[in-house]
Amino acid sequence: MKLSLFTATLLLTGTLYASEAHHSSAKQEGLHAIKLLGSTLKTQLKEKLQLDSNGTAAIAFCTAEAQALTQKVNEELPSHVKVRRTSLNLRNEANKPDALDVQIMQNYKKAFAHKSASAGLITKVERKTFTRVYKPLTVGATCLKCHGENISPEIATQIKAAYPNDAATGMKLGDFRGVIVAEVAKH
Ligand code: HEC
After folding, report:
1. Which of 147, 155, 171 to mutate to test the pocket of ligand 1 (most atoms within 8 A of CB)?
2. Ligand 1 close to Cβ of residue 178 (< 6 A)
3. Most buried one in 17, 153, 164, 166, CB count within 10 A?
4. What distance in angstroms lies between residue 62's CA and the mean position of ligand 1's atoms?
5. CA dist., res. 82 & res. 36, Å (int)
6. Residue 44: CB within 6 Å of ligand 1?
7. If you measure from the C-alpha of residue 20 to the centroid of ligand 1, how many angstroms do you get, rounded to a whole number?
8. Ligand 1 mean position to 22 CA, how many Å?
9. Cα torsion at 94, 90, 144, 104 (round to 10°)?
């Protein structure tokens, strides 16, 4: 129920955003940015996973392109909106969390551990100069290939080579993986 409400909110946000960007709330702008980054990365990942069954092309793609795609999405957004991914189980140093991210993610981690949260659980944080909107990400079946417990030797080798300090494997279905966070500057 929560999830479908969230989806409905996103659909609505997309419409509002296109026609009346100035009147949409910071939360709506944030959700729109989150949806844009999330769907861009997921679509590309799915395409790559279909191309090769063992996932080596897909992980090469994530390693090479995830940051560039994130940058591209940000270029499409208004200049007062920024969106990125981060995690407590970090793979890429470029996605390092700040203190506020850590605090929010620790709350999510506890909630997911007690099964009292769903992926629709949005957190909004107000500060003097910005609003942040957080959306949690959980480990789904497609994520296990590169973040799970039984990673193929080929993929493990690629992870080790690109991210020697990787802390994003050994995860289980339904684990809290991290967040997509949008920051909307106040003007
Ligand atoms: C084909 C391998 C692969 C799959 C499948 C995959 N990831 Fe990743 N993931 C990566 C790589 C490589 C990175 C580091 C590059 C980047 O995104 O900046 C990464 C980074 C991330 C990050 C950014 C934080 C960090 O640790 O750097 C999040 C969040 C994330 N993945 C979540 C997911 C989720 C959720 C799924 C399932 C929907 C998923 N991943 C599926 C390879 C994968």
Report:
1. 147
2. yes
3. 17
4. 7
5. 11
6. no
7. 33
8. 33
9. -110
Residue nearest (by alpha carbon) to ligand 1 atom 38: 143
Which residue do the tokens 């960007």 mark?
21
Q: Residue 132 corresponds to which tokens in the numbers above? A: 């942040």
Task: Give the pair of three-digit tokens for residue 65.
Answer: 């392109």
Contact 176, 89 (CB under 8 A): no
Output the six-digit token pair for 89. 């189980």
Tens of pLDDT along the chain (187 residues) come to 444 444 444 444 444 444 444 567 999 999 999 999 999 999 999 999 998 878 888 999 999 999 999 999 999 999 999 999 999 999 999 999 999 999 999 999 999 998 888 888 999 999 999 999 999 999 999 999 999 999 999 999 999 999 999 999 999 999 999 999 999 999 7
Q: Which residue has the tokens 């955003």?
A: 17
Tokens at residue 107, please?
A: 């709350």
